[in-house]
Amino acid sequence: MTQHATSIHGSIVAIITPMYEDGSVDWDGLKKLVEWHIEQGTNSIVAVGTTGEASTLSMDEHAKVIAEMVRIADKRIPIIAGTGANSTTEAIELTQEAKEIGADAALLVTPYYNKPTQEGLYQHYKKIAGSVDIPQILYNVPGRTGVDMLNDTVIRLSQIDNIVGIKDATGNVARGTELIQNLRSQDMVVFSGDDATAWKLIMAGARGNISVTANVAPNAMSQICAAALAGNQSLTEQLNTQVAQLHEILFCESNPIPVKWALHEMGKTTSGIRLPLTPLAEQFRAPLREALKATGII
Length: 298
What we know:
It contains 13 helices and eight strands. The protein is α/β, with parallel strands linked by helices. Helix 4 (88-101) packs parallel to helix 5 (118-131) and helix 12 crosses helix 13 (282-294).
């Protein structure tokens, strides 16, 4: 296990993949975003996850985006590659590629649409872990995948050496807390994947937050995670209140539609997004702009 993988903590941005209006990747914009995150105190970056539009990138683009982030970061912060798929074989290929590129860890979403059983989920992740020797973080987001990996399955998987964490994007703090308390392996940690409740899960023992909000408020999210990890509840709540409006409005349409529009509004990126996702609907633009102003981002 790499030193970077074991030290992953705090504010972890699930970064967008910036694109031009024709949908092509904006490589210069990508470099600027990574440098900005490092400067703003982001602790780690997830490349080509849900927010990075992994589902519409080609296999070649997928590898190139990860490779470019690894190159730019140059070991200053860990790069976690999104390598999940609903085909176990494809997930193994993507994870192997991420390892060869030099990613510090892989983030693997539960297989979506084909609805495997809990035993199927266990065998899926066990096969990937046994096939590729890279630290692996499970990712449970039932609201997007139609599949819910139960705590008992996660606990079984925690016994596999290179499965080092889980991104819990259920938003269910009680369930996440129960998982933290029941994990027998000290080598596996929990990350929140729900910005609105992340601070509560960190206070309960999670290691950090894999965040959408951090795309637009990297410094604020870094401070919230640091305060929560330090156990300072009053400061954590105070800091979180300042960006709570963003946690809500950045999901007014499917992620990453709102966050990509916000970054363009901030002058950070070009405006492209790939079909079947479309630019943010007109009725949400003024409220999102107001939220960015209210939090001092623009």
